[in-house]
């Protein structure tokens, strides 16, 4: 099995490789090819992986290349985990929006649109190359904004591209735990778009346990989402939203907190990771120790800089490490070995949510086997949730159209139609601001 990792010089790649090292079964990945545009980052990460592998007999062989076509040829699985414009780009996404008084966040609102506009053309180019050079490969997309990017790639790869995120499984795990249930035994009724979904039920042995949680203010207030959204609001909703919905339900507070923060998340991570790659220039640097120290610092601040008061800093180690690399590995195993399982994934709707067309990528529990990921039928969303899902999907479609046509007018429309952008004039200025700082948006003329 050959696995190609795009964005192979990325900081999180050792997490993925660490997950691969735990897999001893027949049919596991035996070759890993790292691809990145930046040879220095590739060599830093390759050294970390070599130290990880040192004590593991039969560890997957690792090679690295800056040649994309070479990396893709013959791949069985392709993980796409790229960040177009790097973390500096993420910091720009945040700052330009905040200067306009609207949310600047990696994947949500104006920041997410800017990131999407930059990333879609690159993702489409990758999808075209995969279709040509590795037509039987499965593409697992982590690249954010994951739902939008998966949809862009699915236009060229159909259901051979599957998007993943760690947030739904993390949410399900936290809910199961407060209910005293084993997360592995629980069926999580979750649906929406990536970073825009709701848990509407959690079934254990045929019984929905969520009403018990919603009825108990102490239980409800005892975990991250309870603190973040507040007990009363969760009871009004009758569901537990993905943490990213905080940016919608408490937008004004979120924008203000971000504006007052000393540094944005992107700026913080950009500095922190630049230090890691800088330290790794020393040929004698202890690669794994240096990486691990940087990772620990990062996790300690995970999404918490503006949410400390909401208790976001209280995640335990498993929430932080049970992340996307485990979802990726579980998905790959199910496909490669035809080990049927259910995972919450980003796939084409195919009639699951009747308010969206069949090709719209949604986030939903899927049955996974050697034939890929098949969305499971779910109950419809309530109107307020359908409304949000439809508006955000409409914005995503404008982003896809702008990326295809290069039309600046369409890009303005994408920003202007977003529920978190409150004026067409703001949308116009956002396009000005973003095209001025992002070379990756030069195509918008
Ligand atoms: C979660 C989300 C990812 C997102 C990440 C940001 O894991 O599911 O989509 O990229 O948080 O974390 P960071 O440490 O980069 O702020
Ligand atoms: Mn995510």
UniProtKB/TrEMBL annotation:
Q: Where is this site: Increases basicity of active site Tyr?
A: 106
List the cofactors.
NAD(+)
Chain ranges of the Glycosyl hydrolase family 4 C-terminal domain: 190-421
Keywords for this protein = Cobalt, Glycosidase, Hydrolase, Iron, Manganese, Metal-binding, NAD, Nickel
Question: Is NAD among this UniProt entry's keywords?
Answer: yes
Presence of keyword Hydrolase: yes
Please give the Gene Ontology molecular function terms for this protein.
hydrolase activity, hydrolyzing O-glycosyl compounds; metal ion binding; oxidoreductase activity, acting on the CH-OH group of donors, NAD or NADP as acceptor
Cofactor mode of binding and number, as noted? Binds 1 NAD(+) per subunit.
Positions binding substrate in this chain are 90, 144
* Alphabetized Gene3D superfamilies for the sequence: Lactate dehydrogenase/glycoside hydrolase, family 4, C-terminal (3.90.110.10), NAD(P)-binding Rossmann-like Domain (3.40.50.720)
Pfam families associated with the record: Glyco_hydro_4 (PF02056), Glyco_hydro_4C (PF11975)
What InterPro entries has UniProt attached to this entry? GlycHydrolase_4_CS (IPR019802), Glyco_hydro_4 (IPR001088), Glyco_hydro_4_C (IPR022616), Lactate_DH/Glyco_Ohase_4_C (IPR015955), NAD(P)-bd_dom_sf (IPR036291)
Binding-site positions, Mn(2+) = 165, 195
**Which residues catalyse the reaction?**
166 (proton donor), 244 (proton acceptor)
Which terms under GO biological process does the entry name?
carbohydrate metabolic process
The record's similarity note reads: Belongs to the glycosyl hydrolase 4 family.
Name assigned to this protein: 6-phospho-beta-glucosidase
Species name: Streptomyces resistomycificus
């Amino acid at each position: 099995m050959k696995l190609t990792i795009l964005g192979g010089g990325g900081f999180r790649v050792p997490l993925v490789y660490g997950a691969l090292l735990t897999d001893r079964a027949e049919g596991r990945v035996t070759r890993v090819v790292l691809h990145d545009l930046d040879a220095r980052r590739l060599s830093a990460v390759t050294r970390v992986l070599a130290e990880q592998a040192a004590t593991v007999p039969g560890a997957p062989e690792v090679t690295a290349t800056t040649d994309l076509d070479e990396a893709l040829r013959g791949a069985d699985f392709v993980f796409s985990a790229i960040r177009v414009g790097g973390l500096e780009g993420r910091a720009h996404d945040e700052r330009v929006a905040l200067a306009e008084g609207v949310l600047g966040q990696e994947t949500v609102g104006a920041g997410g649109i800017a990131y999407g506009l930059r990333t879609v053309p690159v993702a489409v180019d990758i999808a075209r190359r995969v279709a040509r050079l590795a037509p039987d490969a499965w593409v697992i997309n982590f690249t954010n904004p994951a739902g939008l990017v998966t949809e862009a790639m699915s236009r060229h790869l159909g259901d051979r591209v599957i998007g993943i995120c760690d947030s739904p499984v993390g949410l399900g795990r936290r809910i199961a735990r407060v209910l005293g249930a084993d997360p592995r035994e629980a069926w999580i009724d979750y649906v929406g778009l990536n970073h825009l979904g709701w848990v509407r039920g959690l079934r254990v042995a045929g019984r929905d346990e969520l009403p018990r949680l919603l009825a108990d203010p102490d239980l409800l207030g005892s975990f991250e989402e309870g603190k973040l959204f507040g007990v009363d609001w969760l009871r009004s909703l009758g569901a537990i939203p993905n943490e990213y919905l905080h940016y919608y339900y408490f937008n004004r507070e979120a924008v203000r907190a971000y504006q007052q923060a000393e540094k944005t998340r992107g700026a913080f991570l950009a500095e922190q990771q630049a230090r890691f790659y800088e330290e790794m220039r020393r040929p004698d640097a202890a690669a794994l120790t240096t990486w691990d120290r940087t990772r620990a610092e990062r996790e300690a601040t995970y999404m918490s800089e503006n949410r400390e008061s909401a208790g976001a800093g209280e995640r335990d180690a498993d929430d932080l490490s049970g992340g996307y690399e485990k979802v990726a590995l579980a998905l790959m195993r199910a496909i490669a070995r035809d080990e049927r399982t259910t995972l919450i994934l980003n796939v084409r709707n195919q009639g699951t949510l009747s308010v969206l067309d069949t090709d719209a990528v949604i986030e939903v529990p899927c049955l996974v086997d050697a034939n890929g990921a098949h969305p499971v039928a779910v109950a419809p969303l309530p109107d307020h949730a359908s409304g949000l899902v439809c508006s955000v999907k409409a914005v995503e479609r404008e982003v896809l159209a702008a990326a295809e046509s290069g039309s600046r007018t369409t890009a303005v429309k994408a920003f202007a139609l977003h529920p978190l952008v409150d004026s067409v004039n703001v949308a116009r200025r956002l396009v000005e601001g973003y095209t001025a700082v992002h070379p990756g948006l030069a195509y918008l003329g």
